[in-house]
Amino acid sequence: MSGLMITKDNFTFKDFKLSLQKPVHIGLPSEAKDSVNKSHRNLQSILTSGIPVYGVTTGFGKLSHVKINPSDQRKLQLNLVRSHAAGVGRPVDKGIVRTMMILKLLTFVKGYSGVRMSVVNQIIQFLNEDIVPVVPEKGSVGASGDLAQLAHMGLALIGEGEVFYKGKQTESRLIMKSLGMVPLQLEPKEGISLINGTHYSTALAIAILNYSQNLLQCADIIGALSVESSLSSRNVFDPKIHSLKAHPGQRNSAQNIWNILSDSDIVVSHIECGKIQDPYSFRCIPHVHGASRDMINNAADCVNNEINSVSDNPLIFSEKEIHSSGHFHGEHIAQAMDSVGISISEIGAISQKRIHYFMKGIEDIIPPFLALNPGLESGYMLAQVTAGALASENKTLSHPASVDSTTTSAGQEDFVSMAPWAGQKALIIAENTATILAIELMVSASAAQLFLKDSQPSSVTREIFNEVNTYLKYDTGDRPLDKEIQGIKSLIISGKLTETVESKIELI
Length: 508
Prior knowledge:
By secondary structure, this protein is mostly helical.
């Protein structure tokens, strides 16, 4: 099991790549423990002084005017976790839940939440034993924190929820009993500290950013192969051309394609063919892929800032100073994820256009639909239809979640971010786009191997063929294509395609 030390240092979305994929062992340095303990002592001093504390000595949301008796303060925290565990839908991916729990720890060690080390230790033990709370995917509007999802996490910590453990879903209390663990008993403020914050939204954002980084590289790789297989020009990717545009993403995409095709005999074979300009979906690959790269990098900066922020409420600054705020509001994450969703959707949309170009047939060399016997066979006709369906779905999903809002808590929480839905949509778009790219790769690889046998593809392309042909049965005529698409998609989402290319050249 890989390790991760929870410190006050700054983290980036890339630091969570492992927790998204598999269990991680969590360590906590003494400095972090001291910070947690100091914050708890400050809270105790504040409560002793009689200073009103939202969510501790008062009710929540619209009920914040209701005073809570000291004897009921523990019950208040328990009631909060129980009542807010109202999520619905499918369980959230275990990697995202693990990441959400780690983000919660990062907030606690900053020293503004007032929780005991007992809370921190319970989360750490869950992570180290790979006990993953069952968290429903829907029910958060991205303000007052991701309340529903975090409440389900909290419910598991107190032994009242469900968890995944060793491949099974079962009651949290049973797993804790079997491991000699004790359910967490909530003290004042600990319930609200557990469920406040943007940690679910941010975990979704971390997942989509890690996913999208790989997709961007794969898009350049597959786009380059399509340029080669469609007998399009490499010249438009010359770095000196793209030096005239100041967008780094565009320059990087152009350089990637230029390098991938550097030794292609197919490209050289038609250099004097007289064709001046290719369709935009080929000629403008760097402009579209590059824009998506730059927008996603901007979103990554925003998400990294959120990772290293405190999104709890209220915030304890000293033994005499506590403040309510709106740090739980997920607007930054919502807008960032909306931009990522749009950016990835564009990657899929231009890929679908390149697939369409092949379907018409190319220069009496590549027949319509890449059919070996057009008319009797349909070739990749319906694969292109599938790509079109997914690209269209992405367009609908690209409508920004952040421009929507709703009113909750009887009007007290009257403008929410919808950050979780922005992240969930972006993940769906990414999955769809990975499938579209898989179809493009299937089509372009088939085109080269079936109809361009007289010219040698680039050395990078040949390595790609070696991987793709494990799944691709391009020379067998009409056949069911679903398993081939899924197999090629697995090369993309696993990172294997990128690794194969980077064994030959360095991608930017």
